[in-house]
């Protein structure tokens, strides 16, 4: 089981050498915009962008949704593809505070970051004290209502008293395990870079139909009972 947390010191703009990377992610509850700050955590950002450009954030289950705390995700739909990403070193602590919408990695010790990240539901003084928990970016505040709407009925992982998916089984079986046992989960359907001003690029204008199809395939009627 992976725990999660972050660091401190708020910076709203990156330096000219390290511009903010604007990202748009489609989810089963609607789109969110993300601002990635390379100067906050260069190593962590490099891994996030590697995953982004490889199409990793496609059909990724939002598996640990704990209201008032965080949502954690980042085990890929294909176990073989996900497992090829090894650990990365920790970034220095720049004392960036955890605010509502802050994004950072989950981990379990020094130099333990791989692909799992989390988004904070609210400002937190509890998060931000571990080596691996350096913020890499933030959800645009106006889009946090989408994050708030992600299904949270399964709660935390079992090790923390919830009924959420088992990470070991998910790592081995991929989305087949999630769809069969946790049909109400929401998903990150796709993520793409935006232009430097935060506008959609020409390549993004043709994906609407594909996203609509993905939403249809990943959503079940909300009356379906979830296996516990």
Quote the distance from N terminus to C terminus: 18 Å
Helix and strand sequence: EEEHEEEHEEEHHHEH
Based on CA atoms alone, the radius of gyration comes out at 16 Å
Count every helix, treating DSSP H or I runs of 4 or more residues as helices: 6
Mean pLDDT: 85
Can you describe what's shown?
With 228 residues, the chain is an alpha+beta fold. The chain is 21% helix and 20% strand. Strands 1, 2, 3, 4, 5, 6, 7, 8, 9 and 10 form a ten-stranded antiparallel beta sheet that branches.
Quick description:
The chain is α+β, with helices and mostly antiparallel strands. The chain has helices spanning 42-53, 79-82, 144-149, 167-173, 175-181, 208-218, and strands spanning 3-4, 21-27, 30-36, 60-61, 64-66, 70-73, 102-107, 117-120, 137-139, 187-193.
């Amino acid at each position: 089981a992976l725990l999660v947390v972050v660091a401190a010191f708020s910076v709203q703009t990156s330096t000219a050498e390290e511009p903010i990377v604007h990202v748009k992610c489609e989810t089963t509850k609607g789109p969110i915009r993300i601002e990635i700050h390379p100067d906050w955590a260069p190593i962590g950002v490099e891994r996030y962008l590697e995953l982004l450009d490889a199409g990793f954030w496609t059909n990724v289950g939002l598996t640990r949704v704990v209201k008032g705390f965080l949502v954690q995700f980042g085990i890929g739909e294909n176990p073989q593809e996900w497992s090829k990403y090894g650990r990365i070193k920790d970034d220095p602590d720049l004392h960036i505070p955890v605010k509502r919408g802050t994004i950072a990695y989950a981990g379990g010790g020094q130099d333990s970051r791989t692909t799992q990240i989390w988004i904070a539901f609210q400002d937190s003084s509890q998060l931000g004290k571990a080596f691996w928990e350096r913020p890499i970016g933030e959800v645009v505040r106006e889009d946090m209502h989408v994050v708030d709407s992600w299904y949270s009925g399964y709660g935390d992982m079992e090790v923390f008293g919830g009924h959420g998916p088992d990470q070991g089984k998910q790592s081995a079986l991929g989305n087949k395990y999630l769809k069969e046992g946790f049909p109400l989960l929401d998903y990150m359907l796709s993520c793409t870079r935006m232009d430097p001003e935060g506008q959609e690029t020409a390549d993004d204008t043709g994906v609407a139909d594909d996203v609509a199809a993905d939403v249809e395939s990943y959503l079940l009627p909300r009356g379906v009972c979830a296996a516990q």
